[in-house]
Amino acid sequence: MTRKTAWFAPFFHPTPERLEIWLEAQAAQGWKPGALDDMSAMRLHLNSAPASTVRFVVDPQQHVDADYRATYEDAGWHYVGELSSLQVWSRRYKGARPEAFTDRSSRRARDRRLAWVTGALGTLVVLGAAARAALGLAGTGASAEDWPLEAGLLALIGLPLLAVTVALVRNRP
Amino acid sequence: MADLKEELSETMYCILLSLRAERHGYGIILHVAEFTAGAVQLGAGTIYTSLKKLERAGWINRTRTENRRHYYVLTQRGVRALDEQTSRIERLHAYGRGTA
């Protein structure tokens, strides 16, 4: 097997640290992410490669400019690609595991950036679930009897997003 | 602005010191490692985040862009902030040494 697919990796490993650790474990087992595209957040292809010690960094940055990439690349990082506004970087290393965020405040800033996204999205989806349940209970709207399924699905998406937000906000490196 | 002063970390202070002369992100990493004899090693993510923060606070200005790299230097406000921080650290040092 030269390629395998990981489904919904950023959702199963929802914080940057967890995704980094998972990617590093894959690299240690000889699996490296291929070229990332718009679908990679859902299905991430991992290509077979010699097992290696690689540091991955997941940096939630939605709007990046050329200077952002130049700063990382000058510092020895290789750009892997973007996973739904998460910029992914890698670097082979020997000895101490290199860090891209070397102080507490920038690590917290990174978590806050992601928390804003998951918090806003989670709140919207949970409000949508509540609204759907309210409309269903009131018996208004088309197919009013479907509300438990629809509201439940929305809650199933929104609540984990809010849980990730809480984990990020509480995270104190 | 007040918040930035209150939370000014060793990292931020070193970046401000480095930007007394015009430098780009990686130039700051190298310069800080040099004048701290390797004691402060800044990561690329930290540099990028800190530069944005300092620029928003008006302490540094982007001077030019060359080969994809933005160059920055302290503004007058940044120079004043750096002087204030240096005085504060000197004061604390004097308290610590019992010479104040």
Describe this structure in words.
The complex is a heterodimer of chains A (173) and B (100). Chain A is α+β, with helices and mostly antiparallel strands and 173 residues long. Chain A has two domains: 3-92, no CATH class; 104-170. Chain A has helices at residues 9-12, 16-28, 66-74, 104-138, 147-170, and strands at 3-7, 31-33, 43-48, 54-60, 78-83, 86-92. In chain A, the strands form two sheets. Chain A has a three-stranded antiparallel β-sheet with strand order 1-3-2. Chain A has a three-stranded antiparallel β-sheet with strand order 4-6-5. In chain A, a hairpin with a 2-residue loop joins strand 5 (78-83) and strand 6. In chain A, helix 4 runs antiparallel to helix 5. Chain A starts with a strand and ends with a helix. By secondary structure, chain B is α+β, with helices and mostly antiparallel strands. Chain B has a single domain (2-97), classed as Winged helix-like DNA-binding domain superfamily/Winged helix DNA-binding domain (Arc Repressor Mutant, subunit A, Orthogonal Bundle), CATH 1.10.10.10. Chain B contains five helices and three strands, in the order H-H-E-H-H-E-E-H. Chain B has helices at residues 2-6, 10-18, 25-35, 44-56, 76-97, and strands at residues 23-24, 60-66, 69-74. In chain B, strands 1-3-2 form a three-stranded antiparallel β-sheet. The mean pLDDT of chain B is 91.
Can you give me a brief rundown of this structure?
Chain A has 173 residues and is α+β, with helices and mostly antiparallel strands. Chain A has two domains: 3-92, no CATH class; 104-170.
